[in-house]
Automatic annotation (TrEMBL), chains A, B:
Organism from which the protein derives: Roseinatronobacter alkalisoli
Gene3D superfamilies: Jelly Rolls, Winged helix-like DNA-binding domain superfamily/Winged helix DNA-binding domain
Protein name: Crp/Fnr family transcriptional regulator
Record's keyword annotation contains Chaperone: no
InterPro entries linked: cNMP-bd_dom (IPR000595), cNMP-bd_dom_sf (IPR018490), Env_Response_Regulators (IPR050397), HTH_CRP (IPR012318), RmlC-like_jellyroll (IPR014710), WH-like_DNA-bd_sf (IPR036388), WH_DNA-bd_sf (IPR036390)
Domain HTH crp-type intervals: 148-222
Pfam families in alphabetical order: cNMP_binding, HTH_Crp_2
Keywords assigned by UniProt, alphabetized: DNA-binding, Transcription, Transcription regulation
Positions of the Cyclic nucleotide-binding domain: 14-102
DNA sequence: CGGTGTCTTGACTCCTCTCAAGTTCGGTGG
DNA sequence: CCACCGAACTTGAGAGGAGTCAAGACACCG
């Protein structure tokens, strides 16, 4: 059991001490391994009885489209994250999701999740607990959109992404590899792609951060933290709270 | 048990069929009934070991403050909603909350929730499931901030609020009573209070919606829905999914 | 009857968007 | 090997939405 730990298992164990039965159920979620090309849409807004996915490799993003064709990216997913959980919890899918890079993921049918949750309620608690932490990130993102200028938004976003990736062992204080395009940034930050470009240029010229060729480099980490008023508390994690 | 149903109990039963033991635990959460004046801060960002509250009467809002003194309201709570649940789930509170009106609420100590969850895992599942639906609302709010103009934001916000309140039996298609100030709207929508005033005036002059003297009146519901591209799917609710 | 909180309105500024041209670069096929 | 292509990235100019500052109106309350 120990050596087979997936990123997800590790994450869940941080919230709830899981029994053998829980881990069995979780293991069953990982049966249907699949891979998808960059750009493939995994979750379709409005669809019923949608499968969820557990991301094993690569990046994805979840988003909502507006009638005028604009889109707002809500969150990015990295290995160990659930994709489309809410679409199983509720009958109709309220968002879409697509692969940012080529990805590897386990498909979990809606019925499997509901059955699993009914039989392993502590696992259900753990999964939903983790979802609740994702909500904290969405909340921070919301504050970002509501009350920060374009530059602060960008700074905050890159710092948060960096912090999240460090938790999964990708990247460090100097920076991280990042497959996102400026269009992704625009859709996530509620800006136009043109303005994203200008903001990035300005941050680079100020010597704060460089985003080029798929790499984010924190040139002046402290300065960036100050500009963004960044604070990592909402990502805190220790031992399981429920024993 | 039947006649004692709180708004919260009714809400949870929509997601998970609860046992007598679950209902007992839930009942125990309601022991410490308290009331607070309008403006009282219930949840303090950064605090450890924070109590949560179950709102029974009145309105509250949860928000985050920024270092420059601005604030962003993340969500409003109405009777039946949890306040500060995430502050119990994680060790440090990541947001604040205050009473908008005079309110009645049950205080639930962190330890009581964690104990309750450990002993009644299906209740835990239900509570977190409900929290997940709140997340859907936060997501919609985020899209609102990221990709809609001030007018669309306002229209969408008022429609969503109206829809939520109808579910709790407050208000109807013609409008609802609303204790929020224009400052609340500004902090929720990421606008300045001055601009909120102008937007409200314009919507009123267009004959779409009137917000005056604590009352929101939908003068042209259809027109408002069109302007906001409003869609209620994400609030769907039927019978319990987990039996 | 002053005072405080809320709401209005006007004038001016500036941040971000849109439109419109390029440029760079990796890949693909002749 | 080179020409071409599309995707992503740049940059400039002009327009407009939303912010700020400032002043006043209104209403509720002790």
């Amino acid at each position: 059991m120990f050596i087979l730990q997936s990123p997800l298992t590790r994450k869940l164990a941080a919230f709830v001490a899981l029994s053998e039965a829980d881990l069995d159920t979780l293991e069953r979620f990982h049966r249907r391994r699949r891979s998808f090309l960059s750009g493939h849409q995994l979750i379709h807004e409005g669809q019923k009885n949608q499968s969820a996915f557990i991301l094993a490799e690569g990046w994805a993003c979840s988003y909502k489209m507006l009638p005028d064709g604009e889109r707002q990216i809500v969150d990015f997913q990295v290995p160990g994250d659930f994709l489309g959980l809410r679409s199983v919890l509720f009958r109709t899918t309220d968002h879409s999701a697509e692969a940012v890079t080529r990805i590897e993921a386990s498909e979990v049918r809606a019925a499997d999740i509901l059955d699993g949750f009914a039989n392993a309620p502590r696992l259900a608690t753990a999964v939903l607990w983790a979802a609740s932490r994702d909500e904290a990130m969405v909340v921070e993102h919301l504050v970002n959109l509501g009350r920060r200028s374009a530059e602060e938004r960008m700074a905050h976003f890159l710092l948060e992404l960096g912090a999240r990736l460090q938790l999964v062992g990708i990247g460090d204080k100097t920076g991280f590899d990042c497959p996102l395009t400026q269009y992704h940034l625009a859709d996530a930050l509620g800006l136009s792609a043109v303005h994203v470009n200008r903001v990035l240029r300005h941050l680079r010229e100020e010597g704060l951060v460089t985003f080029q060729k798929g790499r984010v480099s924190f040139d002046d980490f402290g300065g960036l933290v100050t500009l963004a008023a960044f604070d990592t508390d909402y990502l805190d994690q220790d031992g399981p709270l429920l024993r």
